[in-house]
Automatic annotation (TrEMBL):
It is found in: Cell membrane. Pfam families: LRR_1 (PF00560), LRR_8 (PF13855). It is a single-pass type I membrane protein. Keywords: Cell membrane, Glycoprotein, Leucine-rich repeat, Membrane, Repeat, Signal, Transmembrane, Transmembrane helix. This is Uncharacterized protein. One of its GO terms (cellular component) is plasma membrane. It comes from the Eukaryota. GO terms for biological process: defense response; response to other organism. Residues 1-18 form the signal peptide. Belongs to the RLP family.
Amino acid sequence: MRYLLFLLIFLLLTKLKSLDISTVPFCERPLNFDGPDFIRVYEFEELHQLKLEEPNLQMFVRNMNDLTELNLDNVDLSAQGSNRSKTLANALPRLQSLSLSFCRLSGSIHPSFSQLQSLSHIDLEGNDLSSEAPHFFANFSNLVTLSLRSCDLQGNFPENVLILPKLQSIDLSDNSLLTGHLPKFPFNSSLRQLKLYNTNFRGKLPDSIGNLMFLTHLLLSSSNFIGSIPSLLANLTLIVELDLRGNSFSGSIPPFHASAVPNLEFLRLSSNLLNGVIYSSLFTLPSLQGLCLDNNHFSGQLEEFSNASSSDGPIPKSISKLPRLVYLELAANNFYGTMKLDIFQSLRNLNSLDLSDNKLSIEGDNGSFTLPNLAALKLSRCNLTEVPKFLKNQVGLKTLNLSNNQIHGSVPSWIWNSGSLYELDLSQNAVDFLEQPLLADSNQSKTVIDGGKNPSSSILGVLALRSCNLSRFPDFLKNQDILFYIDLSDNKINGRTPSWIWKKNLRI
Ligand SMILES: *[C@@H]1O[C@H](CO)[C@@H](O)[C@H](O)[C@H]1NC(C)=O
Ligand SMILES: *[C@@H]1O[C@H](CO)[C@@H](O)[C@H](O)[C@H]1NC(C)=O
Ligand SMILES: *[C@@H]1O[C@H](CO)[C@@H](O)[C@H](O)[C@H]1NC(C)=O
Ligand SMILES: *[C@@H]1O[C@H](CO)[C@@H](O)[C@H](O)[C@H]1NC(C)=O
Ligand SMILES: *[C@@H]1O[C@H](CO)[C@@H](O)[C@H](O)[C@H]1NC(C)=O
Ligand SMILES: *[C@@H]1O[C@H](CO)[C@@H](O)[C@H](O)[C@H]1NC(C)=O
Ligand SMILES: *[C@@H]1O[C@H](CO)[C@@H](O)[C@H](O)[C@H]1NC(C)=O
Ligand SMILES: *[C@@H]1O[C@H](CO)[C@@H](O)[C@H](O)[C@H]1NC(C)=O
Ligand SMILES: *[C@@H]1O[C@H](CO)[C@@H](O)[C@H](O)[C@H]1NC(C)=O
Ligand SMILES: *[C@@H]1O[C@H](CO)[C@@H](O)[C@H](O)[C@H]1NC(C)=O
């Protein structure tokens, strides 16, 4: 009967947002269970505020000897002090899965926690432990998943935990003070997910990382790794996501081939010290959705490129073999050569393209294609002489950065055709708005017709026109309600500043 009541209440709890458990009468008495020997307390996920104070954790788990899974995610356990692990260890010897994420636990994990050796799943994410990770985790030989993400961990993480034979997933991310090195990984490691981003892990990636044949996610961004990227990384058959951004990796990258990494979806290597060749095979990976090579020292005459491409362009024609590509970030490298944007026309899913700050020279296109999903186009310092014509027919563009090019004359009014432009940077181009475009204000959006043909709307937030050739204030901005940043510095604007400009909440 009690068991039924308990279950019922837990089912109700799943819909509740806030509950003070001390007011629930049945909880005033210790709970007694003689129900089935497999009991889950597992349904708190949707609760946002639940405080376990009176009865305390000890009473709560009393007589739950057979409990194998305990999930109190988001339950406020801050009142339990350091007794909680002792409580758990004594009362729940059979516990296999413990999930206490965002429970407002504080302080180090009590040594009695080391008795819970049958644990295979531990999730303590989002508690302010402000201490070292306990070394006894290395003795938890049943451990399959461990998440200590965002726990304010400090000191050196015990390497041996990373080579526990059954370990499949470990997440130590967002512990910026946590140091550590990667161990020598054994051949038969079960590891699938290794997440150490935004930590202070350091040193080189061991060649033995190639032993992690089940690895699907390797996320090491914003840490302190150095050295080269082991070529065996390009042989991890099951890899889906490889994120090494924001470290100090140097040297060249290994050749990634479709046959070796058929499942690779995201390859992010931004903001390292990488250089050398990019094999064009990189541009033929069938599953690739995101490729970020920006802010490195890649350069080229890129190997295989000249053959892959009919012109001598720096981006191989084979780029069109990436049908699933969503973003391509190649900015701030030393790629050079002349190219046309037409080579991207088959990338129907492309959402973001950034080729800025290389030594590229992008030639005009004849506007014969569109990229239906493009939201951000950044072509700063690309030696453009005109606004890319394909934008005339483009719908949904939000960010356009064409700064530092050789565009001159009047900005074509069709630049607003996408109807969604939020951020526009045309700085360092000798342009002016000779035809003042008719932009709708927010009341009229999609009804005002620009040039009698195309609808425009009012959602411009950022407009940078530094060092252009403006001779007067762009009046069409008057009705742009959400505009909050305009840079018109270093132009040749005559006359008084219009008064409407002071009515806006602007940073000029
Ligand atoms: C911890 O447990 C002991 C008895 O086991 C008790 O005396 C003490 O008050 C408890 N501390 C807290 C903070 O609950
Ligand atoms: C691991 O277990 C062994 C044997 O049970 C013990 O000697 C050792 O101290 C334990 N290590 C840690 C870090 O708890
Ligand atoms: C891995 O290999 C070692 C030695 O080769 C062996 O002792 C261990 O049991 C193996 N582990 C698994 C999970 O197969
Ligand atoms: C990677 O795998 C390919 C076959 O898929 C093999 O030819 C190559 O030798 C492997 N590379 C290394 C370094 O093991
Ligand atoms: C490129 O083509 C030339 C001749 O057409 C050939 O000699 C060279 O090996 C090719 N390079 C690559 C990397 O395939
Ligand atoms: C920029 O483009 C012009 C022609 O549009 C070309 O003459 C010039 O060489 C290009 N500059 C660079 C650095 O490629
Ligand atoms: C635009 O150029 C492509 C080749 O890049 C050509 O096939 C197409 O016919 C041209 N379209 C127009 C309208 O000139
Ligand atoms: C446009 O790109 C340049 C070069 O990458 C950058 O410095 C600038 O901040 C960008 N403009 C905006 C509005 O973000
Ligand atoms: C939009 O409409 C509201 C009420 O209809 C009005 O108060 C507001 O001034 C209008 N905004 C503009 C920019 O015309
Ligand atoms: C700048 O604008 C003036 C007219 O205001 C025009 O005469 C001049 O040619 C423009 N400069 C460039 C580089 O386009």
